Amino acid sequence: MFGDRRGVLEIGSGTGQHAAYFAPELAHLTWQPSDVAENLSDIRQWREEAQTPGLLEPITLDVDGRWPPLPIDAIFTANTCHIMSWPQVERMFARASAILPPRGVLAVYGPFHYGGRPSSESNARFDAFLRSRDPASGVRNFEAVHELAQNHGLALEEDNAMPANNRLLVFRKTS
Predict the structure, then answer these.
(1) 105-164 pLDDT per residue, tens
(2) Count of CB atoms within 10 A of residue 154's CB?
(3) Residue 64: CA count within 13 A, CB half-sphere
(4) What angle do CA 104, 56, 48 make, to 5 degrees?
(5) pLDDT score, position 98
(6) Residues sharing a CB contact under 8 Å with residue 128, sequence separation 6 or more, in sequence order
(7) What is the CATH number of the domain that holds 32?
(8) Is residue 59 one of the residues assigned to a domain?
């Protein structure tokens, strides 16, 4: 997925754990973590512990705000689509497509429903929990995410089963 990539923007880095894990494992990449401003200190701590040259200083990035131009050819996001509102997911896909070069990769990790149904009982419980906290959030339907990606010139290349009833969806920009 990222073997032939050079620079990755991680959207919604959260604590920074994914960045700290992936950057040393994918040393050929520069890994740009990002999140809303209040999460950057946690990311900086994980970055400091990782001591990996390719792991860059985190930047502020809000899917509702303006995105800076970045030297990237891939985007990774984990556990974000079910936390954001659907309009925010739509903006994330639109902006991701806008900054990715042709053949750029967008990798989306998290739980998804298929055919409008939870893929597991644990995902059904998780979805109910998310919606009880914030009715705008919740586990997204794969078909809606797939259609959204297609509408922004992103073709599905892989749908990978992952641990804990999660998926890794890999899209490639077609133009």
Answers:
(1) 999 999 999 999 999 999 999 999 999 999 999 999 999 999 999 999 999 999 999 999
(2) 24
(3) 7
(4) 140
(5) 96
(6) none
(7) 3.40.50.150
(8) yes
* Residue 82 domain flag: no
pLDDT digits (tens, 9 = 90+) for 47-69: 999 999 999 999 999 999 999 99
Q: Which amino acid is at 91?
A: R
- Which tokens in the block code for residue 9? 């923007």
At a CB cut-off of 8 Å and minimum separation 6, what does 70 contact? Answer: 7, 9, 32, 99
Whole-structure pTM value: 0.96
Query: In total, how many domains does the chain have?
Result: 1
Looking at this protein, which amino acid is placed at residue 133? R
| Percent of the chain surpassing pLDDT 90 | 97
Q: Residue 9 CB: number of other CB atoms within 10 A?
A: 27
Residue 149: phi and psi, rounded to 5, are -60, -45
Taken as a whole, the chain contains a residue count of 175
Asked if residue 29 lies in contact with residue 54, where contact means CB atoms within 8 angstroms, the answer is yes
